[in-house]
Design goal:
Length: about 525
């Protein structure tokens, strides 16, 4: 009887768990038993590993082989266990030494000739290895840069099973061909990089209040609803929101890159996402493509791929109602749970939502001189497709009015470029970081309402407009909290220590969608004032 152990990683969403793989060779009729809650693709690993070992010049025992993946209660799926299974069988035959495998984790899919194929999910797997206290991970060569984003790991790249055996034996590696990337055609276009790069806010003429609302949204991380006739600039505004957002911080980059790694859409040459993603699914997109799911492998949807970025739903009422209603949970919690009979996968989903919609199905209700053909009942049903609970979770509601001809050639109303507005957004974010230092939150939109009221209370003189709005319009408690968050963002943009009545009144207008006078930009500051600070234990 011979026994050997290796390790690999099981992924549930973006959470990884180190899995122990045991290979036992015993007397009996030749057969391979694979146990431990494995799926169909993993069951096929028996044939892939046997062919890879034999075609690489190694022996495959003609005896009874039992391969166990522990813990058995943890569901396991995917072909990335191939390398760990094949090496465990070789180690059980003493073909490779067991000592180098003591603190190593192996990831990779084997081709029938022994080549090592790239696999998705290497970044979250490497994070799981680091959390488990292990220090060595062996991956396909093209996944080395991705795994190296996790500090404290000794990342080793290999091209084939023969390459791995040589490394374990301390021999010179063979000259095998390079490993092909997971997908050679992956670029940044799928997450909106090609679409939004180079777009400038100065291209949007008129719409001064909508442009200001976009600046507020970028500064505080707030959700926006833009409504108005076709051609007014709703899509142009939404596409320019990512340009106002600052670069992702390192831990945010790791979170976003981990989701994209599980989806298999990371670029091999740039595995760390630096800019906030921009996702704009078509209105015919299914619930699974937007929220996430799948029958065999649970994949992240657009809400998770837009984590720490922007999710833009153009023509929002045209989306299936179940898709829009499924946004309720992630808009509140910042994560999404995709449950199946035997497993639940968790994905982060803290995105900024931008909804764009017309006033009626024909789109002519807000135009002058054009006849709207929609009945009042059709207009009401169209607007109600975006339900009241969804609208209540959106902080900023702005009407994008039809452009007048003079807006296109008005040199007396210069539009600020993206760089100028982005600088003000960055300064406002710095004020938030200083105020929220020592807490779990980074942006005003992330602070729970109870903590906002208890840690940073406002005097009654400042909250007067909000009290009047709450009494006259029946605003929900959630709506009150969201108005307060917007008021704090307006204070950060204005460079004042705390919101006053003017900021609260303006936040009320932005929430209600009513008209207001756009305030003048705050003077640039060399050093952002720390303002109030609170520490949460």
């Amino acid at each position: 009887m011979a026994l050997a152990r290796t390790r690999s990683v099981s992924l549930e969403g973006v959470r990884g768990h180190v899995v122990e793989i045991e290979a036992d060779i015993a007397s009996g009729l030749p057969r391979v038993a694979l146990v431990g809650s494995v799926d169909g693709a993993l069951t096929e690993a028996r044939d892939r590993c046997r062919a890879a070992v034999v075609n690489s010049g190694g022996p495959w025992p003609q005896r009874k082989i039992t391969i166990a993946l522990s813990p058995a209660s943890l569901p396991k799926a995917g072909a990335h266990y191939d390398l760990a299974i094949a090496v465990a069988v070789l180690a059980a035959q003493a073909e490779v030494p067991a000592q180098p495998l003591a603190d190593a984790v192996l990831l990779g899919e084997l081709a029938l000739d022994g080549r090592l194929r790239a696999v998705p999910g290497v970044l979250p797997a490497a994070l799981a290895v680091a959390r488990a206290g292990l220090t060595k991970v062996l991956v396909p060569e093209t996944n080395v840069v991705e795994a190296s984003q996790v500090g404290g790991l000794d990342v080793i790249g290999a091209r084939s099973l023969r390459h791995v055996v040589a490394l374990l034996r301390g021999e010179d590696p063979p000259d095998d061909p390079a490993v092909e990337p997971l997908s050679a055609g992956i670029d940044g276009g799928w997450r909106g990089e090609d679409r939004v790069t180079g777009l400038d806010l100065r291209d949007v003429r008129g719409q001064r209040d909508a442009r200001f609302a976009l600046e507020v949204a970028a500064a505080g991380g707030h959700h926006v609803r833009l409504h108005g006739p076709p051609g007014g600039g709703k899509t142009m505004l939404a596409e320019r929101l990512p340009g106002l957002l600052p670069d992702l911080e390192h831990d945010q980059s790791l979170e976003v890159s981990a989701v994209h790694s599980v989806a298999g859409v990371l670029r091999p040459d740039a595995p760390l996402v630096q800019r906030p993603p921009f996702l704009d699914p078509h209105h015919t997109a299914s619930l699974v493509s937007v929220i996430g799911g799948g029958s065999r492998h649970i994949r992240p949807g657009a809400v998770s791929l837009a984590h720490h970025g922007v999710l833009f739903l153009d023509e929002a009422p045209e989306f299936p109602v179940n898709v829009l209603e499924a946004l309720r949970q992630p808009l509140e919690s910042g994560q999404i749970a995709v449950s199946r009979a035997t497993r639940t996968a968790w994905f982060p989903a803290r995105f900024q939502l931008v909804l764009a919609m017309n006033a009626c199905p024909c789109g002519q209700a807000d135009r002058t001189g054009d006849g709207c053909t929609c009945t009042p009942l059709a207009k009401r049903r169209y607007a109600e497709r975006v339900s009241a609970p969804i609208r209540d979770r959106i902080d900023l509601h702005r009407e994008v009015r039809p452009l007048e001809r003079h807006h296109l050639h008005d040199d007396f109303d210069p539009v600020e470029p993206t760089a100028v507005v982005a600088a003000r957004v960055a300064a406002a974010r710095e004020r938030q970081h200083a105020r929220l230092r020592g807490t779990p939150w980074r942006r005003n939109a992330d602070v729970p309402g109870s903590q906002l009221r208890s840690l940073w209370p406002l005097p009654a003189a400042a909250t007067g407009p909000l009290e009047r709005m709450s009494r006259s319009r029946g605003v929900s408690a959630r709506g009150v909290d969201r108005v307060l968050r917007v008021a704090w963002t307006l204070a950060d943009l204005a460079g004042v220590e705390r919101p006053g009545a003017d900021q609260v009144q303006l936040a009320v207008h932005l929430r209600a969608g009513s008209s207001f006078a756009v305030p003048a930009p705050a003077a640039p500051r060399v050093e952002p004032t720390p303002g109030l600070r609170a520490v949460v234990s």
